Amino acid sequence: MKVDVKTLDAKKAGSVELDDSIFGLEPRADILHRMVRYQLAKRQAGTHSAKGRSEVAGTGAKMYRQKGTGRARHGDKKAPQFRGGGKAFGPKPRSHAIDLPKKIRALAMRHALSSKARAEALMVLDRAEVEAPKTKELHTKLEKLGLANALIVAGQDVQDEFAKAARNIPNIDVLPVQGLNVYDILRRDNLVLTKDAIAALEARFK
Questions:
Q1: What's this model's pTM, rounded to 2 decimal places?
Q2: What is the pLDDT of residues 116-138, one digit of tens each?
């Protein structure tokens, strides 16, 4: 698959051949769904906690006598049905992470990249570099390229000036190629890869 390479000034800078084994697959929604679910579950903090009846503060004395009142038999006021009592089966800190085989995770990345290529939402940039960290200037350049909602993936490292210029632009994310993930690819309308990023991805999936 051949794709044109563009500069940040919206000029053509040649073309590049994309590997069909990475960018030419038929996207499978089930694999992408499993991967997104895996990522979102793994990022959950799992720090929610509620106190049970043995943990809340309160006296352990019997509320009233067992017999003769005509009311239900109760022990102390820490029972869940009373205000201030413990929570029955409340949440406790735990990990929400689920298992997903490594091969499925790698396949999901290929399918996510292929889905953008198939939808013609994939753009290749010559370089993701600017002379000065000016947000307005970069915003204007991205508008010329038609990028209002995009994930920009640089090479091994993101240029500091480019990262600073882009971080205040809404709906624009910038990542190094090592940080590329399925969820971030799918949550943005367009995927922008530099030539260095493509070379790194092809080396990664060989």
A1: 0.83
A2: 999 999 999 999 999 999 999 99
